[in-house]
Amino acid sequence: MKKKASIPSKIKYNRLAEIMAERKITQEALAEDSGVTQREISLYKTGKREPSLPTLFKIAKALKVDPCALLNR
Question: Is the Cβ–Cβ distance between 40 and 73 less than 8 Å?
Answer without folding.
Answer: no
